Amino acid sequence: TNGLNVLCKIKSYSFGYDLNNEEYGQIQAIKNLLIKEKLNLDDIDVFEINESFCGLPILISKILGIPEEKINIYGGEIAIGDVLG
Question: What would the pLDDT profile of 17-70 be if each residue is shown by its tens digit?
Fold first, then answer.
């Protein structure tokens, strides 16, 4: 760990893709993960949603019912920078 404290661990992952509308792939990925891990949205404290398409986090919040204060709380891809975000 190079002397650094572990802040979190990645327990699981998922992916999704919609051939007709690639922006909706992240919605399917979230749904897949919730099913895979037998979780609901309230079990997750923070969502980091790739915002290559600027309004996507807002769209996902509205469609899935995720409170906006749980999404990209430290900024996102655009705020941090494309490569780092």
Answer: 877 877 788 888 999 999 999 999 999 988 888 776 667 888 889 999 999 899
Q: Which amino acid does the sequence have at 49?
A: I
Contact 32, 15 (CB under 8 A): yes
Higher pLDDT, 1 or 54: 54
3 state SS for 11-51: CCCCCCCCCCCHHHHHHHHHHHHHHHCCCCHHHCCCECCCC
Cβ neighbours of residue 12 closer than 8 Å, sequence gap 6 or more: 33, 36, 37
